[in-house]
Design a protein that fits this description.
alpha+beta; single chain
Amino acid sequence: MDSAGYTTLTRMVGLNRELQTIANNIANVSTTGYRKEGMLFSEYISQLEKGEDSLSMADGNVRITNETQGPLTPTGGTYDFAIEGDGFFLIDTPNGQALTRNGAFTTNQNGELTTHDGYQLLDNGGAAIFIPQDAKTVAVSSDGTLSADGQPLSQIGLYMPEDPTSLTRSNGVRFYTDGAIVPQEEAVILQGYVENSNVNAITEVARMIEVQNAYTMGQQFSQQEDERIKSVISTLGR
């Protein structure tokens, strides 16, 4: 394969990954707390033999998360919380503590506040939050202070990673980090709301068409190059 073929192939591989990313965004357009992903492309330049031009190849291996806040929708749910501003809820999972913007919670048989997957929501001290089973009213103030029948119980913790680039996504709406997490005190919590996905379906579909067209152009170029090389070999063979 010649240099043009390698360049086209690496570009097509990156475009294929971008198509998968866009398709995943569209599939999660209705997922609470989902934040869309994008691809980050870089250029890899390789020096060819002496006297020849360099070879430029595209590399699309890095996924980036769009941190734009999604629209907030009122639900009226007692255990539905939305974060207005930066920050994440902290939950306890079998793989360790995770950050999430999905604020749709419930209570389990022990009275613990959990995600619908059964993972405990943690307070500002990293402990589980318990709701008395005989509580008639549960309220959450803007700073996360949770009260039952007018009596303060706990304070829901909001956190941020020290290094936002250290976040790795798991299962769509959960993020893990190998670095430290710090309390986030500037954001507010709204009870009875959830944050919708920040995916704009129209924009994503338009981008998918654009990427598909670019991929098709790459295929056509590869076919033309293949036909050209075959023609040259046939001519030289005669």
